[in-house]
Amino acid sequence: MTLEERFEKLTERHEALTHSLELLSHLHQEGERRITRLEQIMTALAEAQVKTEDSINRLAHIAAAHEQRLDDIEGQ
Questions:
Q1: What SS3 string covers 8-71?
Q2: Beta carbons within 8 Å of 1's beta carbon, 6+ residues apart
């Protein structure tokens, strides 16, 4: 194998590695964007869960108060 052939082969490998690194970099950036979006979604879901639990607790308190009023009315 001549020096020129070896140089050409190394150049091809270098170009392939450069292309691979560019692709990996793009995939990494896309993965980071997706993770950030998933974090936002999870935060929103957690906040919605807290709001739902608060609403359920308030409804349970209202139902208990109504039940107590009915019991008081029936007791009279």
A1: HHHHHHHHHHHHHHHHHHHHHHHHHHHHHHHHHHHHHHHHHHHHHHHHHHHHHHHHHHHHHHHH
A2: 9
Evaluate if pTM is beyond 0.90: no
Q: Per-residue confidence of the chain (76 residues) as pLDDT tens digits? A: 899 999 999 999 999 999 999 999 999 999 999 999 999 999 999 999 999 999 999 999 999 999 999 988 988 7
Dist CA 64 CA 70 (whole Å): 10
